[in-house]
């Protein structure tokens, strides 16, 4: 999940889409068993506290976690993720796809007997219509609305030669072949992302799904974006904007194991302390990202704090173009030795956090197990600074305000710990603090800081999604292409990404990770932190996801 990804303001062309709004408020119980849908076994109603309102319900244009939390229950993709892991498994594809020898054509065998919520058949023709819909975007959508397609596929139909996607063809009703321009670890792995979910061609055509219009700094989306139609275990019932509730109901015609819940309600509660109070009162049965300082208190109240495996990295970025002293490898190594990261983990991060040895967590293929953490050694740091002629190094160091991230629960406290270590080694730190969405992210993008702290939560299990994103581009925040070794590193990353065999690709990334840490050290990977999700004592069956991509079809809520 890209740290800089910011959802744009949204307006909706049609208000008729909100006609179901009142339905969301009609039966917001607190866990008692309700009427069953279609005579199936009842699993009750779960009301989940959301930190923000969904921007829309078309996952193709979505960029924010609160929207994806809802759409993930409504839609399926060709590929899915094994619950509790980052492992890619078949979804609407009956099995994992088969590549051609050159990795340019991928054959997908599809499940049979699947229908969209509106009764439209899911088949090979529907798959190709989805891909052609995603590929054929107008300039407004291309500008940033369809950002996940742009990030993964690179270009749209009007610049087809530049795109990773090169077409979808129907072999028979249960077989499609998707062509790409080059072998890459992004494909087909990225098809597990919610943005690439399969949607009803009938509903998209009726709702003019691609009719996106620019409006100021945001977009106006068509009526379809408020009337989602997928194949998933839950169906959309309504969005009551006045009461901040989205209501889903069980899809009794689901192709797989039916959802156990009768109803799933997402209630928007922006303030975390209010979410905790409502959990205690029983008006909601769970919420995401509880503050680590509250974990024990939540447990003491009888709640279940489910800690996810860490799938993120907190790092200290360095900009040698802004501060030429940082171009010296010895200076970068000195800064690393100066940081007491063991103490940082113990004092500032939640239980289960760990010191990083590289820029990817150990849950990602390509992680190099042979790398050991760089130890805290103030004397070594001072020695290296002296050898580099950088004693008394001046370092403009920035941190964000008005934000909390899974990898960075309290940015100011983390910053102060790092600053204290650096100053103890003789580095003279100039402090810069800016709001996360009020100059900080823009400052990183524009190269305004010598050093900064930020992080990344992976979108899917791919080393390229981490280190490829960080260091491949000519315009990356670490300014690696301003360094003599920048192109060499980029070439290594692109070569690893192009390997078709997954085991050989993982081995190549292990070597690149070793080179990054020992030869280049463009930035300083700090820690990995496991975020949590909390549910009440009467909730069973929720499986915590390292991708923060929980599915609620396995959940039941017992009566009180």
Question: What do these coordinates show?
Answer:
It is built from 15 helices and 24 strands. The radius of gyration is 24 Å and the shape is globular. The protein folds into two domains: 10-285 and 535-557, D-Maltodextrin-Binding Protein, domain 2 (3-Layer(aba) Sandwich); 312-528, Dipeptide-binding Protein, domain 3 (Roll), CATH 3.10.105. The protein starts with 9 loop residues before the first strand and ends with a strand. It has a seven-stranded mixed β-sheet, with helices on both faces. The protein has a six-stranded mixed β-sheet with strand order 17-21-16-20-18-19. 49% of the residues are buried. The chain is α+β, with helices and mostly antiparallel strands and 560 residues long.
Instruction: Using the 3D structure, state the CATH architecture of the largest domain.
Output: 3-Layer(aba) Sandwich
Strand coverage percent: 15-25%
User: What's the total count of β strands?
Assistant: 24
Would you tell me the overall average pLDDT?
91
Q: Which structural class fits the helix and strand makeup?
A: alpha+beta
